[in-house]
């Protein structure tokens, strides 16, 4: 049974630290968080100030995220949860995931292999 509040989209988006250093590439993203493939080590519970662009909106999102889990296989990465303070961020990410999910279902397009 799926416990997620928001629909997940398999899509690669570059995620950066606020200072500009790249953390990694998302494997999936939702309005609540993302899984990021990364070679960096992060501690569970660590807070990250992150920046990323929503591709089809050319909108930059700046937010804080908490590392919820780490994984080594099948790829190195971290699961993060966004600490979203404003509704506009949730709305922007939800619109993006819903729009692309519909497009993928209709076209069979695979945005991330």
Key features of this structure:
single chain; 113 residues; alpha+beta; Thrombin, subunit H; six-stranded antiparallel beta barrel; 6 strands
Topology at a glance:
Layout: E1 14-17, E2 22-29, E3 33-37, E4 47-54, E5 59-71, E6 77-83, H1 87-107
Task: Explain this structure.
- By secondary structure, the chain is α+β, with helices and mostly antiparallel strands.
- The protein has one domain: Beta Barrel (Thrombin, subunit H).
- Helix content is 19%, strand content 40%.
- The chain contains one helix and six strands, in the order E-E-E-E-E-E-H.
- A six-stranded antiparallel beta barrel has the order 1-2-3-6-5-4.
- Strand 1 and strand 2 form a beta hairpin.
- It is globular and about 40 Å long.
- The protein starts with 13 loop residues before the first strand and ends in a 6-residue tail after the last helix.
- The model has no long low-confidence stretch (mean pLDDT 87).
């Amino acid at each position: 049974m799926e416990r997620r509040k928001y629909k997940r989209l398999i899509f690669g988006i570059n995620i950066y630290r606020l200072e500009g250093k790249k953390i990694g590439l998302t494997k999936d993203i939702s309005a609540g968080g993302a899984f990021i493939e990364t070679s960096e080590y992060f501690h569970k519970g660590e807070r990250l100030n992150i920046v990323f662009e929503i591709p089809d909106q050319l909108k930059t999102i700046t937010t804080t995220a908490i590392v919820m889990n780490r994984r080594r296989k099948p790829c190195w990465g971290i699961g993060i949860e966004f600490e979203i303070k404003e509704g506009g961020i949730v709305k922007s990410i939800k619109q993006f995931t819903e729009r692309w999910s519909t497009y993928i279902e209709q076209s069979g397009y695979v945005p991330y292999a």
